[in-house]
Specification:
By secondary structure, the protein is of the alpha+beta class. It is built from four helices and three strands. It starts with a strand and ends in a 15-residue tail after the last helix.
Length: about 110
């Protein structure tokens, strides 16, 4: 089994989920919406201001657990539906190397 995570722009979520639903043998997916911040303030030695502390952006994460044989198909479908160039796929990294043991937890 493989776990695939993709951070998708809100306006592309419907297209991505539609593409994933067309994959024969794929049994499901999870779409998680939340708020977060990234490296926008990295390298800054300035103490965080109240605006920086509450400066969250909306994020959408699509998670798929699938059989090894479907992993490349799932990633290709996400890339195509989200219009991601291969060099910046899935937040700059492909997460196909996460085998899942029989207990369902990620290593």
């Amino acid at each position: 089994m493989k776990k695939i995570e993709a951070f998708v722009k809100e306006e592309k979520v419907e297209e991505v989920t539609r593409a994933l639903r067309l994959i024969e043998g794929l049994t499901g997916m999870t779409v998680l919406r939340g708020e977060g911040f990234g490296r926008r303030h990295e390298g800054s030695e300035v103490a965080p201001t109240p605006e920086m502390i509450h400066d969250f952006r909306q994020v959408v994460r699509v998670e798929v657990f699938c059989m090894d044989a479907l992993a490349e198909i799932v990633v290709a479908a996400i890339e195509k539906a989200a219009h991601c160039p291969a060099s910046t796929t899935l937040s700059g990294r492909r997460q196909l190397d996460w085998p899942v043991d029989g207990g369902g937890s990620c290593r």
